[in-house]
Fold:
Amino acid sequence: FPNQQARGEFGGQDGPLCVAFDTDESIRIQRLLRQKLGPEHVSTRQGMGGTRLSYIEGWRIISIANEIFGFNGWRSSIQNMAIDFMDMGEGGRLSVGASCVVRITLRDGTYREDVGYGMIENVKSKGQALEKVKKEATTDALKRAMRQFGNVLGNCVYDKEYVKSLVQVQKQTRGRIQESSLYRYTDLEETQRVNQSDGAPRPQAIEGQQASNNQVQQTAMPVSVQRPPNQNHIQAVNTDEAAKHRRVVGQQARIATGSGSPNEIFQQSGGMDEVSDFDMDVLDDEGMLDMMADLETDRPIIHESP
Structure:
């Protein structure tokens, strides 16, 4: 492979930079691609005319490609997708066929592409028919493109002599699944925790979360609000204190006898400097209405002592 180059769809300023495999990687990849698959990787199905066809399942091809090239060493792209026919028969049943062209590109820019086909007959659902033929065509095209890289990616099953002799080779049995090798829900939680904290220690989730929140609230510094000077404001006091210190406009004796309105009494008394305690119980209905009317007219400011 060349050191660095742009090939195929990677060319141009808008394409990603292609990074070549180093010498050791190239030797390793070439050695693996030459190997033929064991019988445990090869499946068979019924073909036309009563023949048996050998093939490789799509998920196996993807897994082998990830092991050889690396999960970030290759990618696939659909170049074209076409519905070749859609016929409706009796009872509204459909027969659909689709073709697809897929390109497999390695990280150094080397690519292979091929065509795949999918078909279904005599189905009622149009959506299910299209889903089936498109997926089948895409998988078929991916496998046919992959086989062009070497035997281990499926090209060996086109060798008839190899397929005939393969039945004489005993299949390897798959080992029992080890629980320690499974990706469990706890592994997912740990991955999420590490990603969120970026390596920084965090309190334990669920049980420790409430305790951590309480600790944060207890250790939080109180925020003091500075009130602007010379601004009138009412300070909250309890009911008993408010009853003891409430000051209102007027003189108790004159308001009780009804001589003079509260506003006149307020002006004659010199304002808030000479305000006396006022008992609301001595007011009758008429005196209360007069005081409310004066307050609505002139609205003198009523202060509350601290």
In short: Strands lie at 43-46, 52-55, 74-88, 94-106, 111-123. The mean pLDDT is 75. The first strand starts at residue 43 and ends at 46.
